Amino acid sequence: MITVYGKPDCTDWARSKAILESMGLTYRFLDIASDFEAGKRAENISGGQSSPVIVFPDGSFVVEPSDEELTAKLNR
């Protein structure tokens, strides 16, 4: 399953969410604004404080992806 670390009101997350949902993909969303541990995990994965951090089942991830980057990753 795809895991997303982000903030509910983030515009980058809104774009990524629309793509995931338009493709009918299931994901788990972890709110880094209200869940300290999730925020630390996202920081460890991404090496910084950018969001969203989208982690794929194979362990690969993207940080603040463009629509094109996320779509290309999902179509592989």
Which features does this protein show?
single chain, 76 residues, alpha+beta, Glutaredoxin, four-stranded mixed beta sheet, 3 helices, 4 strands
Concise account of the structure shown:
This protein has 76 residues and is of the alpha+beta class. It has three helices and four strands, in the order βαβαββα. The chain has a single domain, classed as Glutaredoxin.
Question: How does this model look, in words?
Answer:
The protein has 76 residues and is α+β, with helices and mostly antiparallel strands. The protein has one domain (2-74): Glutaredoxin (3-Layer(aba) Sandwich). The protein is built from 3 helices and 4 strands, in the order βαβαββα. It has helices at 11-22, 36-46, 67-74; strands spanning 2-6, 27-31, 53-55, 61-63. It has a 4-stranded mixed sheet, with helices on one face. The radius of gyration is 11 Å and the shape is globular. It starts with a strand and ends with a helix.
